[in-house]
Write a structure and sequence with these properties.
- By secondary structure, this protein is α/β, with parallel strands linked by helices.
- The N terminus is likely disordered.
- The protein is built from 13 helices and 12 strands.
- It is 38% helix and 16% strand.
- The structure holds 3-phosphoglyceric acid (3PG).
- The site of 3-phosphoglyceric acid has 11 residues, from loops.
């Protein structure tokens, strides 16, 4: 009998993978191996659309692995045996941390595991916009352009690495990251968001969605951008002031906005300002087999390590 079974009094521990946007099959196989090798049972709830399906599936499991799936108070209330919830990815704005803490549930993320995938998508979208969405007209190149990385975390660092390969001049703003870390990676630190936006033709967003950052990317910042301004958002749509984006489109014919997931006013933007924006139909940044394997297996290992040994290295709630 594995230690996990001992821990929960002789009953096999159960780990649920609840993903409305499923992992690649190969990642699910990897997760299954980690879970079953530990003597636990894997349950799968994929492509669900009704919250009731999650409420039902989570009610007797010990651990849950999610992506952008919402874990709110109602879900934690329904999860009578839950001890650990791991967000296989970086952002955990989809989890009610207070509700988890109130129920004694540990919440973790898997930082860095999907960051290269997100950074590559940022460039996929940047090349597309620079080449006028491949419409046959003459576009521009990324080489020699200035790119501003707004928040220099794991994704931001991958964006910097790739940007240098393109021959871009790389700037970053992050009040939580020392200048030396940026400089060591050939990135020029700036010390305010205003300076970043005023300097760079391309700005790539990597800020998390928090009370402080929501709607913080506004007209005051964007209007400082030089001619040929392109905002690339592979972070969260919540950090954008979407009304101000429309005003930018109206007042700056050079402005373009590309985002991994559509803003609420996408229909207005695409109709009134054709050929100047692109929005993925579903969040695609982390949607690669590699990112799914890295983040999914890390989440499975972290779940098992917590359930068996109480290891909570990547805990994000108190
Ligand atoms: C993240 O926060 O890790 C990314 O936004 C990816 O989210 P996803 O797993 O829902 O694709």
């Amino acid at each position: 009998m594995g230690r996990g079974k001992e821990i929960i009094g002789g009953i096999t521990m159960k780990i649920l993978v609840a993903t409305s946007k499923p992992f690649a099959t190969v990642a699910v196989e990897g997760i299954r191996k980690v879970v079953e090798d530990a003597g636990a049972e894997l349950r799968l709830l994929e492509k669900y659309s009704e919250k009731s399906a999650l409420l039902d599936a989570i009610k007797d499991v010990d651990g849950v692995i999610i992506r952008s799936d919402i874990l709110d108070k109602e879900v934690f209330d329904a999860a009578k045996n839950l001890k650990i919830a791991v967000r296989a990815g970086a952002g955990y704005d989809n989890v009610d941390l207070q509700a988890a803490t109130d129920k004694g549930v540990c919440v973790m993320n898997t930082p860095g595991q999907n960051s290269n995938a997100v950074a590559e998508l940022a460039f996929g979208m940047m090349v597309m916009v620079a080449r006028n969405f491949y419409n046959g007209t003459s576009g521009t190149e990324l080489k020699g352009k200035k790119i501003g990385i707004h928040a220099y975390g794991q994704v931001g660092r991958n964006v910097a690495r790739i940007a240098k390969g393109f021959g871009m001049e790389v700037y970053a703003f992050d009040p939580y990251c020392p200048d030396d870390v940026m400089k060591e990676q050939g990135v020029i630190p700036v010390h305010s968001a205003e300076e970043l936006y005023a300097t760079c033709q391309y700005v790539s967003l990597h800020v998390p969605a928090t009370d402080e950052t929501k709607k913080s990317i506004n007209l005051s910042l964007l209007s400082k951008m030089p001619q040929g301004a392109t905002l690339v958002n592979t972070a969260r749509k919540e950090v954008i002031n979407e009304d101000d984006i429309v005003t930018m489109f109206e007042t700056r014919p050079d402005f373009r906005y590309i985002s991994d997931i559509a803003p609420a006013n996408a229909a207005v933007i695409t109709e009134k300002f054709p050929g100047r924006s692109f929005f993925t139909p579903k969040k695609m940044g982390a949607q690669t087999a590699e990112a799914n394997i890295n983040a999914g297996i890390a989440a499975a290992k972290q779940s098992i390590a917590y359930l068996k040994e109480g290891i909570d290295k990547f805990r994000v709630n108190k």
